[in-house]
Amino acid sequence: MTFVSVRNIFQSYGDRPILERVNLDVAEGEFVSIVGASGCGKSTFLRLLLAEERPVKGEIRIDGNPPAVEPGRERGVVFQRYSVFPHMTVRENIVAGESFERASGRFFGAERRAALARADAVLARIGLSHVAGQYPATLSGGMQQRLAIGQALAARPRILLLDEPFGALDPGTRLQMHDFLMELRAETGMTVFMVTHDLSEGFKLGDRVLVFDKTRWDADYPDRYGATVTYDFDARDGGMPFQHLLDQFPGLAPEFPLSALPGSAVRDHQGPEAAPTGPRL
Ligand SMILES: Nc1ncnc2c1ncn2[C@@H]1O[C@H](COP(=O)(O)OP(=O)(O)OP(=O)(O)O)[C@@H](O)[C@H]1O
């Protein structure tokens, strides 16, 4: 059953189209990876889901309703660069994440004690209990990003939006974060949209991998057309057979023509006029 529905979305900045004819149905609990060339509108799409922007045309529905303008309860978001508060301790950061309107200082008495107890439960879940009283600057990059995810989860959102969340981390920490995110996802059943530049990460973590690209090009006016979803790959089972191919041919991604993969389910999002030529990542 559809949880997030995106219908014929167009978005432009000034007279410059960024997205066009984006259609999508996502079930609750699905993990959707989003890849595409730099500047093609992936973050713009996340901002539309967050209701930070309104589309020029089209409609987004979350559980049948337009996305609420206030962040927090329904959707949590994590960016590439650590979005935690540097002047608050790790525990206070989690408390602050519970509600954007109610920073930690707004909790008093029993309410504050309850909020701190909930924060401690989140910290235990993300493995940061031992640094609860420290400031973010004293943590490693991976720990800070775990804190950012914990902060987003403190409000118990049904949807987690991740914009290149592991892009700034070293490869080892990145792998640890993959395990961490998969565990959290299994525990919470949340729906995830993750923008990544790492194709194999997208296939490893996602149930689906969406490729954003332009289907129409004007060589004289490269900004004339917007991007849309050109591929929607079934990536369950760890992105097999994509991962097997990567193992066999290291260095294959990202130029490999994804459409040639055996067993990849490519769903049609644009209708008969669209003629995707393969992602340029
Ligand atoms: N508020 C804005 N006003 C005008 N142009 C914008 C605005 N936000 C984004 N853009 C432009 O829209 C295009 C799409 O930006 P967006 O950040 O969505 O791309 P992206 O696919 O996420 O890129 P990257 O992979 O590099 O992060 C870019 O050319 C960007 O400069």
From TrEMBL:
Pfam families hit by this protein: ABC_tran (PF00005)
Protein name: Lauroyl acyltransferase
Protein family per UniProt: Belongs to the ABC transporter superfamily.
Keyword terms of this UniProt record: Acyltransferase, ATP-binding, Cell membrane, Membrane, Nucleotide-binding, Transferase, Translocase, Transport
GO molecular-function term, one example from the UniProt record: ATP binding
Translocase found in the keyword field: yes
Segments for region (Disordered): 260-281
Limits of the ABC transporter domain: 4-239
Organism: Primorskyibacter flagellatus
Superkingdom of origin: Bacteria
